[in-house]
Amino acid sequence: GYRGEDGLPLGLYGPADPVTIEQIAKIALVASGVDRRACGTTMLNAGAKGRWSEEFIRCAEHLQWSVFSDGSVDPLRPATRAEVVVTMLQAFGVEIRSTDALPFTDVDSSTEFRSAITTAFEDHVVGGFSDAEGNATGKFGPTNSVNRAEVAKIVVLAGEVYGK
User: What is the distance between the alpha carbons of residues 112 and 100, in angstroms, rounded to a whole number?
Assistant: First the structure.
């Protein structure tokens, strides 16, 4: 949940709130247990310098995670569903398999991080959208922003499937 200026929990979670790039960097690093002390001191992303997230962005860059590797991503913008999936798989050291499978109608060969989405689907970490009755719609929404509740589910499932 959220913390106040004093670092104490506020008792708020905000499940529908969007997750930003800088937040997903922290979430992925903490969830996967990556030792941040081994991430060096070089920082590419000027927009993250001096922010609370600097060490997390720097570490994601050092580990060459796709979303962070060139230092150009805006740490304050909402993360997309595809970015969250590829970041979580990379954080857990998952081999992203190349496949021709297309489990979602809105994910095709031109979709960024398609192989990560398909790998996570095949490993039962993501399942795409459901309708009001809980039936799969066949869509994933790779470029949609992702909220805290969705990220929490992905993190829990990734930990169960890929945790060490």
Answer: 14
Which amino acid appears at position 17 of this protein? D
Distance CA(31)–CA(105), nearest Å, equals: 30
Rg (CA), the chain: 16
pLDDT single digits (tens) 64-92: 999 999 999 999 999 999 999 999 999 99
Cα angle value 98/103/105 (rounded, 5°): 120
Query: What number of CA atoms fall less than 13 Å from residue 2's CA on the CB side?
Result: 12
Instruction: Tell if the pTM clears 0.85, that is, is over it.
Output: yes
Chain centroid offset of residue 66 CA: 11
State whether residue 164 is helix, strand or coil: coil
